[in-house]
Amino acid sequence: MPHDHAKGDHSHASAGDDCPGCATPDLAFASHDHAHCAADVLARAEALAVASGARMTPVRRRVLEILLESHKAMGAYDVLQRLAADGFGNQPPVAYRALEFLVEQGFAHRIRRLNAFAACMHPGEVHAPAFLICKSCDMVAEAPAAAVRAALDAAAAEVGFVVERSNIEALGLCPACRVGA
Amino acid sequence: MPHDHAKGDHSHASAGDDCPGCATPDLAFASHDHAHCAADVLARAEALAVASGARMTPVRRRVLEILLESHKAMGAYDVLQRLAADGFGNQPPVAYRALEFLVEQGFAHRIRRLNAFAACMHPGEVHAPAFLICKSCDMVAEAPAAAVRAALDAAAAEVGFVVERSNIEALGLCPACRVGA
DNA sequence: TTATCTATGTTATATCATAACTGGTCAACC
DNA sequence: GGTTGACCAGTTATGATATAACATAGATAA
Ligand SMILES: [Zn+2]
Ligand SMILES: [Zn+2]
Ligand SMILES: [Zn+2]
Ligand SMILES: [Zn+2]
Q1: Same domain, A32 and A74
Q2: Do B106 and B126 meet the contact criterion of CB atoms below 8 Å apart?
């Protein structure tokens, strides 16, 4: 069981955090202390927002918290429902705007295959993520995809195309589900 | 000007076609005889359908023809409008079903970033395409992405994830637009 | 303070996609 | 020939996702 330290085991809510388990790419699929995982990412995002001057307002923070509740992607309307229950506005733009902000800041990612959004597990780190979407448990992990992105850039360069943004998404079975079924 | 032979230059509507220019990956972005390009792909798709027993009905054929009119991706409703103008049904399922068929047969691809569909330029060939979407001219090219897919599989395997299907899409500038702007 | 900018909330609408049922065609089978 | 069953296209209706446009409130800054 990797990375199963309890909540109080060690506390690090700063941006300089470097607990080995926290950055493990397969953390999403592995059994782990997700409360810690989420709190850590949230704290890092907050710190980054402060540093960059981006305004982490209550709605925006709440949306990020909601996304961080699990390693699954959520549709905007699901997020909206949660927001409404918390007393925030209950019209689509409320959710879409907060999500847009988070994506712009690099605190969340849009998963186009699912028309959904997931919290970024590596805020602040340069990363061209590939998303691994388990079709069985719906969990989404960010795989380090520098090599993938490099291959894509190369394939594009081959025909003179310059890549600006990319979506790399894979649907399949995560380790846990592969064993189970 | 690569691949600019006129329509009558040489005729090859068979599946065994191997005109060098026809399979060039960057054909979409290069100046080329698109009538030939489209006719060739259509003929190859037809042949494959016959071979596999898939039924290329009038609506389905027409949808493929429509997609083949340019190297851009089209939304289902755009396709539908064209179908209706041709006397086919004008309700969404008509377009969506034909598009679904074409995607299943490998005669078209779904571009998730655009919520749109594009004709496959390499029907019958095994290919895990990466889509290069020019944000300036809206053209979409299929880049050979075996290496990209391999890198993705490797990144996934690293965490024990097995990839079944993938979307690899890049937004950027095509060679022509990069020069212009 | 007053101006200005930004964020949130609201109404309304646009855009994308599918469920469920109806009828038509065609070939296999008796 | 008539019946059956498979498949396709057409329709109605609705669901799901996303944004435009405007109104209000809060923060920032002169
Ligand atoms: Zn976690
Ligand atoms: Zn990320
Ligand atoms: Zn062409
Ligand atoms: Zn293709």
Answers
A1: yes
A2: no
